[in-house]
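Researcher: I'm preparing a figure for a lab meeting and need a structural model of a single chain. I don't have an experimental structure, so a prediction will have to do for now. The sequence is pasted below. Please return the structure as tokens so I can convert it later.
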Amino acid sequence: MKNLTAKDIVLDASKLIYPADYSEQENIEGVRIIDLKNIPAEEGDFSEILRIKNGNLENIKGFKLAQINRTTLIPGSIKAWHLHYRQDEIWYVSPLDHLLAGLWDVRTKSPSVGKTMRVVLGGGSAHMLYIPKGVAHGSAIFTSKPVELYVFVNQQFNLKKADEKRIPWDSLGRDFWKPKRD
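Model: Understood. Here is the structure written out token by token.
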């Protein structure tokens, strides 16, 4: 059987065709996606999330763990945008869950100022997302079940001097938080 060309597709459909984009997205300066090894077994699976030595994370130099937080995000929720002036954080979602993380570099002196990223956490993969201070971040849940997000931070929360600033959720447009459809 011979290969097809665009001339072999009906005119109505050929006008709508575009190439799939599998190129790697540009990173925001300082943001890291840390792959974890998830080991499947007959009785379940196992992931090593953090290795800590003297309070420091082994795979993120200079990050001294100060607090671990967990939040439950309900289906259909969008929780954005917020940022920190003093705190770096690491997000982790179980491979059994699915969360869209949105990142926006709002640091004036960053080489990637203004850039955005969308990162899927969970979804069958085991990795963490490192978010440096000054990078606005948020999340959206498209699944029909709640998602538990674990947040590892290098500053303890202080209610009287909270290092949490807000930007309206739709500041980049409502479409930023919609799933990309093909």
